[in-house]
Write a structure and sequence with these properties.
This protein has 119 residues and is of the alpha+beta class. The chain folds into 2 domains: 2-38, no CATH class; 52-117, no CATH class. It has helices spanning 2-8, 74-79, 83-94, 114-117, and strands at 11-13, 25-29, 35-38, 54-55, 60-62, 70-72. The strands form 2 sheets. A 3-stranded antiparallel sheet has the order 1-2-3, covered by helices on one side. Strands 4-5-6 form a 3-stranded antiparallel sheet. The longest helix is centred in the C-terminal third of the chain and has 12 residues, at 83-94. It starts with a helix and ends with a helix.
């Protein structure tokens, strides 16, 4: 997709891209305000800028779409824990977020595909 867009438009690194907006890397059509973002987990790792986790409908938080780390909030929520304890559990869960995915190194390990999680 990127190659086809570059063939048709003069794409330059976006100057006014929103920092902290996640793993996308933005390009801008030269001379316009039009931007397009690319998330390229295989060709250009984005893990160092990934600020995403996914929360499943069953209360399971998935730290990375390319890893199996997860944390279940279901028992805590069913117990009705106070907000400060829930906040502490969230901090502990986020600490499980891995440094990078292993899509190419250990592809046989992935038992939960992105489409199953919503990524």
């Amino acid at each position: 997709v990127k190659k086809r867009l570059k063939a048709k438009y003069d794409l330059i690194p976006a100057v006014n891209s929103v920092t902290g907006a996640g793993p996308a890397r933005y390009l801008q059509v030269a001379g316009t305000d039009t931007m397009v973002g690319f998330i390229t987990p295989m060709s250009e790792h984005f893990c160092e800028t990934c600020n995403r986790v996914r929360l499943g409908c069953d209360g399971t938080m998935y730290m990375c779409l390319g890893q199996e780390e997860s944390f279940s909030f279901r028992p805590l929520l069913r117990k009705g824990i106070p907000d400060d304890e829930l906040k502490e559990a969230l901090i502990q869960a986020i600490a499980l977020k891995p440094e990078r995915h292993e899509f190419t190194e250990k592809p046989e390990k992935v038992v939960r595909f992105m489409s199953m999680t919503g990524g």
